[in-house]
Amino acid sequence: MLPEPVVERRSFRAPTTEAEILVASVVSGILGVDAVGLDDDFFELGGNSLNAMRVIAGLTEALGVNVPVRIVFDAPIMTDLASRIAIGIRAGFDVASDDAISVVLPLRTGGSERPLFCIHPMVGLAWPYMNLLPAVDRSIPVYGIQTPALTDEKFAPAELGDYMDRYVDEIIRVQAEGPYRLMGWSLGGVLAHGVATRLQNRGSEVETLVVVDSLPIAELTEAADSRPFVDHLREDFSAMGIAIPAGEEIGNLSRESLTSILKAVEGDRVGLSIDRIRQLFTSIEALEAMIDRYGPKVFDGDVIFVSSEQHPEPADAALLWQPYVHGVIDNFYVQCPHVAMMTPPASAEIGQVIDRALRTQY
User: Fold this and answer.
1) Contacts by residues 247-252 (CB-CB < 8 Å, ≥ 24 positions apart)
2) CA 299, CA 361: separation in Å to the nearest integer?
3) Predicted confidence (pLDDT) per residue in 234-287, tens digit
4) Which of these, 311, 319, 361, 313, lies nearest to 341 by C-alpha position?
5) Considering only CA atoms, which of 217, 210, 230 is closest in space to residue 160?
6) Do 301 and 211 meet the contact criterion of CB atoms below 8 Å apart?
7) Residue of 129, 137, 145, 214 with fewest CB within 10 Å of its CB?
8) Would you call 52 helix, strand, or coil by DSSP?
9) Contacts of 250 (CB under 8 A, 6+ apart)
């Protein structure tokens, strides 16, 4: 069992400037917090990926201009966020409309250390990894890797390995040389492992590989949980606050359902559209067959594995990875279901494990 996360309590500093008051008001309204101070951290206040999108939507509506999504990730402390807003009001915001759905999602760009790359779960979005940020040292930049299906019409993968090859190229564009740091949850763990082996095949060093509650191949996943593929998807999207209607095919959702999903995630504020959401679900549906055909290679190095204690046999998941790891698998457990691992308080516990690993203190 991991230790309870420690949240430092700060003395309250009230907002005074126009930008500070605006930020505090919007965040307070979204999170339902009575008093938001300048030194409060958005994520420590209970903010998550969906709430971050709603804060951006609220700021955009209040200011009458598009506010970039990354601003909440890069500046989660209220005084820093207000400063960014004030600068944007004076000089204009640098907005990339597809930032929240781009293949590389900058969750934290500041920091002098080598970055951590967090590869998306089945849903294709890296938004849930925002909840790791409070626990990972601020000197470490963090990037999410997301499905190209949302932004690249020419991307036509035939196998799961095509995703991995694309992600290797994207990661190298951000960090030209190793050592590399990778993590992934659920399907993201399989993808991160595959990316790691491909980087090694190119002669690069992978110094950290964190796999969170993931099984190596589809047959083992089915043996561990016999529910239909679509049920897993509904559960994963539900954890993000997105309801997938029962009785509808994932790859053929009604326009009414797609509109409801778009509204739930403030999609029009972050470059999403009904057509793009439809494309996302079509690509996810195609993943099922790719997963069935995929066979992992062997990663040469140690792996940090985090699994749920709520599995019938929690230790078995790590053991299933052993044939695909030429090194030590260091196993940690969290007391929460699989679907909740990237939400507080589990995300704080997992973030602590990752932080210690990146600073070689675990």
Assistant:
1) 249/285, 250/281, 250/284, 250/285, 251/281, 251/282, 251/284, 251/285, 251/286
2) 22
3) 777 776 667 777 777 777 778 888 888 777 776 666 677 888 888 888 888 888
4) 311
5) 217
6) no
7) 137
8) helix
9) 230, 233, 244, 281, 284, 285
* C-alpha neighbours within 13 Å on the C-beta side of residue 357: 27
List, in sequence order, every beta strand (DSSP E) within 8-64: none
Give the domain ranges of the chain.
Answer: 18-95, 100-358
* Arch. (CATH architecture) of 18-95: Orthogonal Bundle (1.10)
113: left (phi over 0), alpha (psi -120 to 50) or beta: beta
d(CA 217, CA 132): 26
CATH class in words for 100-358: alpha beta
Tokens of 328: 């030590």
pTM of the model: 0.85
- The length of the chain in residues reads 362
Burial of 12 (0-12, 13-18, 19+ CB in 10 A): exposed
Identify which of 107, 19, 120, 9 has the alpha carbon closest to the alpha carbon of residue 63.
19
- Are the CB atoms for 105 and 75 separated by under 8 Å? no
